[in-house]
Amino acid sequence: MLRTLFSGFVLTLCTAVVLMIGGGSDLEHVALLGAALGGVIGLVPHDPPLGKLGGFALGFVLAWIAFGLRAALLPDSTVGRAVAAFLVILICGAVAAVSAGRVPLWSTLVGAAAIVGAYESAYTSSPPTFLTDSPQAATTVLLAAAVGYIATTIIHVFIKGEGAEPKPGPRSDPAGDNDMLERVMAGETK
Fold first, then answer.
1. Residue among 56, 189, 82, 70 nearest 127 (CA)
2. Mapping DSSP to helix (H, G, I), strand (E, B) and coil, where does residue 172 land?
3. Which residue has the higher pLDDT, 55 or 188?
4. How far lies 1's CA from each of 7, 14, 157, in Å?
5. 116 touches 34 (CB < 8 A)
6. Own/partner long-range contacts of 154-158 (Cβ < 8 Å, ≥24 apart)
C-alpha cells in the first residue's frame, strides 16, 4: 500500500512539474494524459520489460501513421476513422500474437491512445495541417509519458512492495511428477 501511495504521489509531483515546464504551450494540455499513460507503462509488470516499451512505441507510431493515412488517402468521415482504427488495432493484435505476448497488446493500445488523445481534436479541426501539427502533438505527449514512466519505474525499482520477494518455485519439474494430482487432492504438501 505504501508503494502505491508513494508512486501516486511521485507521479503527481512529476505531472505538476511537466505542467509548470509547459505552461502556455501544448504540453500543458497533454501533461496529465501523457504522465498517466507513461505511469501505466511503468507500473504494469511485464517480462521482458522492453516488450512493454516496444509495444507502446509500436502503437504510438501505428496510430500516428493512421493519422497520415487519414489525411492523405481516407475520407474525413466516420468510415475513414473506422478504417484507420481497424488497421491500427488489427496490426497491434497481430504483433502481440506473433510475439507470443512478449510485446503485450495492452501496451500497444496505450501507445495508440497516447497520440490519439493528444492529437485527435487538432486533427479534426484541420486535417490538411497534419505534417505541421502532428509532430508537436507527438513530442509533447511523449515528453509527458516519459516523465510518468521514469517516475513510476524508479519507485518500483527502489521501493519493494509487499509480496515483492520472489517465491520459490516447485522443487521438481511438475511434468515429471505423475502422482502430483493425487497428492494435491489428498491435501499433502510434499
1. 70
2. coil
3. 55
4. 10, 20, 16
5. no
6. 154/10, 155/3, 155/6, 155/7, 155/10, 156/3, 156/7, 156/42, 156/43
Q: Give the up-direction half-sphere exposure of residue 16: CA atoms within 13 A in the CB hemisphere.
A: 6
Find out whether 140 and 34 touch, Cβ atoms under 8 Å: yes
Residue 115 sits at the vertex; the CA angle it makes with 48 and 155, to the nearest 5 degrees, is: 45
- Between CA 130 and CA 67 the distance in angstroms is 8
CA angle at residue 155 from 154 to 160, to 5 degrees?
120
Query: Is 31:22 a contact under the CB 8 Å cutoff?
Result: yes
The pLDDT tens digits for 38-50 are: 999 998 888 888 9
SS3 159: coil
Q: Judge contact between 156 and 7, C-beta under 8 A.
A: yes
What's the pTM?
Answer: 0.79
Please state, in angstroms and as integers, the Cα–Cα distance from residue 92 to each residue in 30, 61, 170, following that order: 23, 11, 35
User: Does the pLDDT value for residue 118 go beyond 90?
Assistant: yes
183 Cβ contact partners less than 8 Å away, ≥ 6 residues apart: 190
